[in-house]
Specification:
This protein is mainly alpha-helical. The protein is 62% helix and 0% strand.
Length: 86
């Protein structure tokens, strides 16, 4: 039988560290500010055709199901695709 301690010695502790979303967000925002990303994006979009996604309010008429995730994912993917196209 394999002992738990021998398994722990083979696992990388870096992988097991908890994800600190606040720290990651702080680093990303600092990078964006230092690189002037918002300003560059604004200049890049000047005169571009506007893109809209109409997303109505959520309705609570049934239990959540995979269809809710599907439609939300479609809207997110399409918006990101359009954004990357300029």
């Amino acid at each position: 039988m394999v002992k738990l301690e021998s398994i722990k010695q083979t696992i990388s502790t870096d992988v097991l560290k908890p994800y600190d979303s606040k720290q990651v967000e702080k680093q990303v925002l600092e990078f964006w500010k230092a690189s002037e990303i918002p300003k560059k994006l604004s200049l890049h979009r000047q005169g571009a055709k506007k893109f809209f996604v109409l997303d109505g309010p959520p309705y609570i008429n049934a239990l959540p199901h995979v269809g809710h995730a599907k439609t939300t994912t479609y809207k997110d993917v399409w918006t990101r695709f359009a954004y990357m196209q300029g």
